[in-house]
Design brief:
Blueprint: H1 6-20, H2 24-44, E1 47-51, H3 70-73, E2 76-81, H4 83-101, E3 110-116, H5 120-127, E4 135-145, E5 148-157, E6 167-175, H6 179-189, E7 195-203, E8 219-223, E9 229-230, E10 246-249
Parallel strand pairs: 1-8, 3-4, 3-6, 6-7, 7-8
Antiparallel strand pairs: 2-10, 4-5, 9-10
Helix pairs in contact: 4-5
Bound molecules: xanthosine-5'-monophosphate and magnesium ion.
Residues 118, 144, 235 line the site of magnesium ion (MG).
Length: 251
């Protein structure tokens, strides 16, 4: 028997033995429970639109946009995500959020919290694709100096609304070591919202610190390689946020 036939044959055998050890009714009840458990696990799984770490063609898009100042163009090693790529990510993730939010029956209100300043452009584009009522707010956390995380987190600007009993959606630019998102989740959960969902434009999963290995946004547009990125809201000491694409910064 070919090796590839072992898995399906074993599965059929196990299901057959399991089936014959149960009455019809017990078998159907267990099948139903398994289906519900499977659907629950699938529903809770976080969503990633695309992992571009192995997309060869993406690494070196040349900078073609006329709108890029020369002073910035010389600092760009290549365009990682074009405007078109970002639009695709936005459409996929917003469709998913619109669908999932339908399950929030009896909501006391939804608050979309933008993490300043990196997520402001992503969040502005995302919120115009969300088709349910929500209030907007923002929070600012500091940890980075230049391209280095200091590892200690502080709230620089607090959320203005009371989020007690509300459904909160946090919008982040990028999850890197995972420390900021971990800090924000704990900070927001301490305010007792009814639920908390997190959205990230980018995720550098290869940079996750071991202590934050479990940290992942519920919705991620793009998993990217371990490179320092700028543009579309992301900065280097306050510069480059206005670039309409996500680029790799030259060292
Ligand atoms: P951690 O390490 O806490 O980092 O997950 C999350 C925050 O760090 C910033 N960050 C970046 N900013 N280009 C940037 O402009 C990057 O490549 C980058 N990596 C991390 C970002 O502010 C994020 O909220
Ligand atoms: Mg930043």
């Amino acid at each position: 028997m070919p090796r590839t036939a072992f898995a399906p044959c074993t599965t059929v055998l196990v299901v057959h033995m399991w089936r014959s050890s149960l009455t019809d009714e017990a078998f159907h009840v267990r099948c139903l429970m398994l289906a519900v458990a499977f659907m629950t696990v699938c529903a809770q799984k976080s969503y990633v639109f695309i992992d571009i770490r192995n997309r060869q063609d993406q690494q070196n898009y040349p900078v073609t946009q006329d709108s890029v100042p020369d002073a910035y163009a010389k600092d760009i090693a290549g365009v990682l995500l074009s405007q078109q790529d970002i639009l695709h990510g936005l459409s996929a993730v917003s469709a998913r959020i619109n669908q999932d939010v339908q399950s929030l029956s009896n909501s006391q209100g939804i608050v979309l919290v933008t993490v300043l300043h990196g997520a402001m452009i992503f969040s502005a584009d995302l919120m115009r694709r969300l088709y349910f009522p929500f209030q907007t707010d923002s929070v600012a956390v500091s940890s980075y100096e230049g391209i280095q995380s200091t590892g200690s987190y502080q709230v620089k600007k607090e959320i203005g609304h009371s989020i007690f009993g509300k459904d909160v959606i946090v919008v982040e630019d990028i999850v890197d070591t995972g420390g900021t998102l971990d800090f924000l989740i704990r900070h927001i959960e301490a305010k007792n919202p009814a639920s908390l969902r997190t959205v990230a434009l980018l995720d550098k999963v290869d940079r996750r610190k071991q202590q934050f290995a479990h940290i992942k946004a519920d919705y991620t547009c793009f998993v990217i390689p371990d490179v320092f990125v700028i543009g579309y809201g992301l900065d280097y000491i306050g510069h480059y946020r206005g670039l309409p694409f996500v680029a790799v910064k030259k060292d």
